[in-house]
Write a structure and sequence with these properties.
- This protein has 754 residues and is α/β, with parallel strands linked by helices.
- The protein has three domains: 329 residues, TIM Barrel (Alpha-Beta Barrel), CATH 3.20.20.300; 197 residues, Rossmann fold (3-Layer(aba) Sandwich), CATH 3.40.50; 114 residues, Immunoglobulin-like (Sandwich), CATH 2.60.40.10.
- It contains 19 helices and 29 strands.
- The strands form seven sheets. The chain has a six-stranded mixed beta sheet with strand order 1-2-3-4-6-9. Strands 10-17-16-15-11-12 form a six-stranded mixed beta sheet, sandwiched between helices. A five-stranded mixed beta sheet has the order 8-7-5-19-18, with no helix packed on it.
- Strand 13 and strand 14 form a beta hairpin.
- The longest helix has 17 residues.
- The structure holds beta-D-glucopyranose.
- Beta-D-glucopyranose binds next to loops.
Length: 754
């Protein structure tokens, strides 16, 4: 009885608290009704408005900035819990301390690492992007995270970009198509996707101080489409502003990109989150569209800790609102957006609980990995491996763990299968011999997470090559597994690669092995294109990516033929760096301004960078300049062969023009092919790229079977962005649809008029 009385009293107190306190701006709930904001039969907008009407100015400001490295406060008085973010985008980051990047030392945060996003893009399979999003969203949810900091969709403009591996390649249509199901999959768990880094964050060199100069047409045609698709088609609940500047302002506080394009033109109703330390002053953060500020002071090593109250959107904002400098309308808009995020995530009682390192997630990682591997070359059918007696595996990347490193996407995994482990397990009948071949990076540490691997090696470079060559002479097959890694100046955040060539003298190792090997396969593990001067000298080349927890299994699946490769390159592999469009210092990495600028309290040098190549990025550039790449965008072989039949066309561009394309598996094993459709404009008032990807479809076929793939395009596929009119224009005229299996293997042409 007594307990009941106490409980009732507690409920009354909680109720009164939720309904606002005397003297505060707040609404009283009528009778016994549940307050609207707690009533999940009401729409999110009604709940948001009700919650907002109960909040004090202090409470509104309090939800607009961080309270720790990765969390922000809720509204405790109303029972709205705090919000937790996490990296992203390949797995759930291990727990760090409240104020520091150092590890919290949990033993229950070892996650599933999914393949890096370049790999996902290389699958050209939106269903796999959905599986990826659902799975990583479940992992986030299980770990009680409400916002996943990913996916990344910045365009791979230069192969030197240290973070290309976190993005979806060089083409706006491919990345737009792949990002949508990823976002939807994550959010089906009641976890927000936070699409990053908006916008024009296409390099790591000088990432905080690069001022991008790009014309509007290029911005809209190349650099924005994937963000737009994530927002409008994917319904992303959050977006992360980038570190760099554009149009004279930092992108986390950029009037044109945030208020103008994102919230204005695209109608984004979610939250703009700053990249960690990407906010620089209160006026612009307030006025130019930032909603939720993270990492400002705690990212600055010289600052005192626990300074969240000093964030630009904390005390300085509150004081400004109180003094009348900043208006309530803007504050309410920000608070409303953040509340909407709460109701979509932490306040959703019905969201699923999630799961962590489940057999389903491991299977998903393996499947995405094996379907993303690209068979670049396979002369004489070297692959799949058959009954090899002795296999020599050479190279550091055969054994090096790749889930640790690379920056904020670094993970702590429950188990990572190395390529060598995968090969040993799958080819248990063969004799597997391993030789190091070269020494790359032996460290294996990131923010206190260690791979625990001892990769120390005392032999000289010459001795390592000599030993590998000697072993190659006695092997039936040599598999070289090298490429880049996740160390600084490789595929890693914070710095770009310093050269396009493979590091650590690997070219010499490959050449030496190629001279003696009976059969040879080179597997390049990277998230970027690399120079392959030996491409003509080795019969088989595989693009292997960072494949996550199941790397070894996914690779062995393809090497053995258990999985028939079907990945296609999401970027062009050029012969040399000078083949790519950013050729001058002004284009990359930018020219320092003589005068200093202010970044918050600091004086900094800004680097102006001209995207003067315009829309000619990736294959658009190679086509425009008639440069033959080593391997073209969209290229990828199979263990079977496919034939594309004559397309039939129906409909119209206005209502939807459908291409029905017969595809036949003409080989002996089952496999999947990606039918690709590019549009080429005839005479045009403006210069156009020779061709642009506007449709694709992946189809799986048993040997001898034919399927008809349908690809529908509309006005969007033939449009260009007219910067003067500031609108998309579908010009009347002649067009060609080029159809095939790679950007350089387009066997069918269909001409049409609009
Ligand atoms: C990165 C973001 C990341 C954030 C939080 C930043 O340095 O640029 O991509 O989400 O840190 O770790």
């Amino acid at each position: 009885m007594k307990t009941r009385l106490i409980l009732s009293l507690m409920l009354v107190v909680a109720w009164a608290t939720a309904c606002g306190q005397p003297g505060q701006r707040g609404k009283q709930a009528a009778g016994n009704d549940v307050p609207v904001f707690l009533d999940d039969s009401k729409s999110i907008d009604e709940r948001v408005e009700d919650a907002l009407s109960r909040m004090t100015v202090e409470e509104k400001v309090a939800i607009l900035h961080a309270q720790s490295k990765f969390s922000s406060a809720g509204v405790p008085r109303l029972g709205i819990p705090e919000l937790w973010t996490t990296d992203g985008p390949h797995g759930i980051r291990p727990e760090v301390l409240w104020d520091k990047w150092s590890q919290a030392g949990w033993t229950s945060d070892s996650c599933t690492a999914f393949p890096a996003l370049t790999a996902l893009a290389a699958s050209w399979d939106p269903d796999l992007a959905k599986l990826y999003g659902v799975s990583i969203g479940q992992e986030a949810r299980y770990r009680k995270k409400d916002v996943l900091l990913g996916p990344g969709v910045n365009i791979c403009r230069t192969p030197l970009n240290g973070r290309s591996f976190e993005y979806m390649g060089e083409d706006p249509f491919l990345s737009s198509t792949m990002v949508v199901p990823y976002v939807q999959g994550v959010q089906s768990n009641g976890v927000a996707a936070c699409v990053k880094h908006y916008a024009l964050n296409n390099q790591e060199t000088n990432r905080f101080v690069t001022h991008v100069k790009v014309d509007d047409r290029t911005l809209y045609e190349i650099y924005l489409p994937a963000f737009k698709a994530a927002v409008q088609k994917g319904g992303a609940w959050a977006i992360m502003g980038s570190y760099n500047l554009y149009n004279g302002q930092w992108c986390c506080q950029n009037e044109y990109t945030l208020n103008g394009i994102l919230k204005g033109e695209w109608g984004f109703d979610g939250v703009v989150i700053s990249d960690w330390g990407g906010a620089h002053d209160t006026d612009q953060c307030v006025e130019h569209g930032l909603d939720l500020e993270f990492g400002t002071v705690t990212n600055n090593p010289s600052a005192a800790s626990n300074t969240y109250a000093n964030y630009y959107l904390a005390s300085p904002y509150l004081e400004g609102v109180k003094s009348g400098k900043y208006d309530m309308k803007t504050l309410d808009d920000k608070a409303r957006r953040v509340l909407r995020l709460f109701f979509r995530t932490v306040m959703d009682k019905n969201r699923p609980y999630g799961s962590f390192v489940s057999p389903e997630h491991i299977a998903a990682a393996r499947k995405i990995g094996s379907e993303s591997i690209v068979l670049l070359k396979n002369d004489g059918g070297v692959l799949p491996l058959k009954d090899e007696g002795r296999i020599l595996v050479v190279g550091e990347n055969a054994v090096k763990m790749m889930t640790v490193g690379g920056g904020s996407s670094s993970l702590k995994v429950k188990k990572e299968y190395s390529p060598l482990e995968g090969i040993r397990e799958r080819f248990s009948n063969a004799e597997i011999v391993y030789e190091r071949g070269y020494v790359g990076d032996v460290s294996g540490q990131f923010d206190g997470v260690s791979t625990g691997q001892d990769l120390d090696e005392t032999r000289s470079a010459a001795q390592l090559i000599a030993d590998a060559v000697a072993a190659a002479g006695e092997a039936d097959c040599v598999i070289f597994i090298g490429g880049l890694n996740k160390s600084t100046f490789q595929d890693a955040e914070g710095a770009d690669r310093q050269s396009y060539e493979l590091p650590y003298g690997q070219d010499a190792v490959i050449e030496a092995l190629a001279a003696v090997a009976r059969k040879m396969v080179v597997i390049n593990i990277s998230g970027n294109a690399v120079a392959m001067p030996w491409a003509g000298k080795v019969p088989a080349i595989v693009q292997g990516w960072y494949l996550g927890s199941e790397a070894g299994h996914s690779l062995a699946d393809v090497l053995s033929g258990d999985v028939n490769p079907s990945g296609k390159l999401p970027f062009t592999i050029g012969a040399q760096l000078s083949d790519y469009p950013a050729r001058t210092e002004a284009q990359y990495p930018g020219i320092p301004r003589p005068e200093m600028s202010k970044m918050g309290l600091q004086d900094v040098t800004i680097y102006d960078e001209e995207y003067s190549e315009g829309i000619f990025v990736g294959y658009r550039w190679f086509d425009h300049e008639s440069i033959a790449p080593t391997f073209a965008f969209g290229h990828g072989l199979s263990y079977t062969s496919f034939e594309i039949g004559d397309p039939k066309v129906s409909g119209s561009i206005g209502k939807g023009l459908t291409f029905s394309i017969p595809v036949t598996n003409t080989g002996k094993v089952a496999g999947a092919e990606v039918v690709q459709l590019y549009i080429s404009a005839g005479d045009s008032a403006v210069e156009r790229a020779p061709k642009e990807l506007k449709g694709f479809s992946k189809v799986y076929l048993e040997p001898g079977k034919t399927a008809t793939v349908k690809i529908t395009i509309d006005k969007e596929a033939i449009s260009y962005f007219d910067a003067d009119k500031h609108e998309w224009v579908a010009a009347k005229g002649d067009y060609s649809a080029l159809i095939g299996t790679s950007s350089d293997a387009l066997s069918k042409t269909v001409e049409f008029k609009y």
